[in-house]
Amino acid sequence: MDHARRMTARALAHAMLAGGRDEAGLAARMAVCLSDRPPWLAALAQAMARVPGEVWQRLDVPALAARVEAHDGFAEAWFSDRRPEARHWLLRSPETLAPALAPLERPHWPTVGALARGLGLTPAGLWRLTLPVDWQRRRPLAQQHYRQALVPRRSGGWRLLEVPEPHLRAVQRRLLTQLLNDLPPHAAAFGFTRGRSVVQHAALHAGQGRVLRFDLQDFFSTVHAGRIHALFKALGYSTAVARALTALCTTATPDVWLRKELRLGWPQRQRLRDPHLPQGAPTSPALANLCAFALDARLSGLAERFGARYSRYADDLVISGPASLPVRAVAAWVAGIAEDEGFVIHPRKTRSLGVAQRQSVCGIVVNRHPNLPRDAFDRLKATLHRCVLDGPASQNREGHADWRGHLHGRVAWAAQLNAARAEKLKALLARIDWQR
């Protein structure tokens, strides 16, 4: 019993350290850990929330576990018929990542000079790319390492693309090749990951009684530089090297650009002022996946608790399960866990889809098996038919530079989802006279 009590105390300590120190958050995470909310749990959460901040900052897992074991309610529970049992281990990001990454070989960059040589830069070149944030943010636009562009979202509003200049993009690609591509994201992450695809993400939720979809708001810009620095530190790099790596992969949107561009909402502008992952940099998807490791781990545990399944494709979160899935309870848990992990659920994009509705995941219908939506199939079939009759140029209304390649790609995508139906599309494609 002593071993079980000690391990349960450590599991609760991990759960408490996996997020904020507010009483409700502590209680919620411990309840997930135990898959139960015994009467003494609220008192334990209250006691831990009262620990002074400066003391809490010094607590590690063993020290906090000792406090849990010493708590009267926890101790008495082991002499009752309802002994605590740890069912889910909730881990904060560095502690979750470190064991998974430990066996991997990583570039040996003990100093900033070694980092510069490894990335093919001179010390002066690396210095110019890693200038302090305050100076970087106030530089004239002509001297910035990124170019900003707003693109409209299909659901309304605007998305900011921050595209690195060629000299920085080349360095980021080397960093991606030498380090980031070899770091494994959580098994539930399907976007931007080699060997995983959006079709696999959708297929996981096929044939379920209830499909819940959630969207992370401003996915990249909510991942701030502090989290990236913590990740590189967890990989074993020194503070100076981690700081340089962070500066290479994050940016603070220039003040002069934010002042003149008023189409972004106030919350977006506030996130962009601080150093964050830029949407448009080749390193951002891999880093965002790694920083979402704890989010994926906790939501996987939550889904398991309700007899459901979970996966994520970039900012698209999906939980599916039986028709009896308690939608409101799951949605509240998802929003709370996301906030606890530093992300924000978009309130207007949450969807609950039953079997009587078209259940779609990333544009793929999953009511029975992954399939192309009927209206999308019909539109593509009609386009190909008109290409046969009137010539392909007559249907290229959006001015695609490679219209032939575009149509081949759309037919190939349909074939991935439903090979039998796609045969009709392939037959039409083969009849098009591309000389007309």
Q: Name the overall outline.
A: globular
Classify the helix fraction into a percent range: 40-55%
End-to-end gap? 81 Å
Distinct helical segment count: 22
The count of DSSP E runs of length 2 or more, i.e. the number of strands, is 8
Reported for the largest beta sheet, the result is: 4 strands, antiparallel
Helix/strand order, N-terminal first: HHHHHHHHHHEEHHEHHHHHHEEHEEEHHH
- Radius of gyration, in Å, reads 25 Å
Write down the overall mean pLDDT: 87
Question: Structural class of the helices, strands and pairings?
Answer: alpha+beta
pLDDT < 50 runs, ≥5 residues: none
**Sheet with most strands: strand arrangement:** 4-5-3-6
Share in β-strands: 5-15%
Q: Can you offer a commentary on this structure?
A:
The chain has 436 residues and is of the alpha+beta class. The chain is built from 22 helices and 8 strands. It has a 4-stranded antiparallel beta sheet. Helix 2 packs across helix 3 and helix 20 packs parallel to helix 22. The longest helix has 17 residues. It is globular and about 85 Å long.
List keywords for this structure.
436 residues; globular; 4-stranded antiparallel β-sheet; alpha+beta
Ordered list of secondary-structure elements with their pairings:
Blueprint: H1 2-17, H2 23-34, H3 40-49, H4 53-56, H5 61-70, H6 72-77, H7 93-101, H8 112-118, H9 123-129, H10 133-138, E1 146-152, E2 158-164, H11 166-178, H12 198-203, E3 210-215, H13 225-234, H14 239-249, H15 255-260, H16 266-273, H17 284-291, H18 293-305, E4 309-313, E5 316-321, H19 327-340, E6 351-354, E7 360-361, E8 364-365, H20 374-390, H21 403-417, H22 419-431
Antiparallel strand pairs: 1-2, 3-5, 3-6, 4-5, 7-8
Helix pairs in contact: 1-2, 1-5, 2-3, 7-13, 13-14, 18-19, 20-22, 21-22
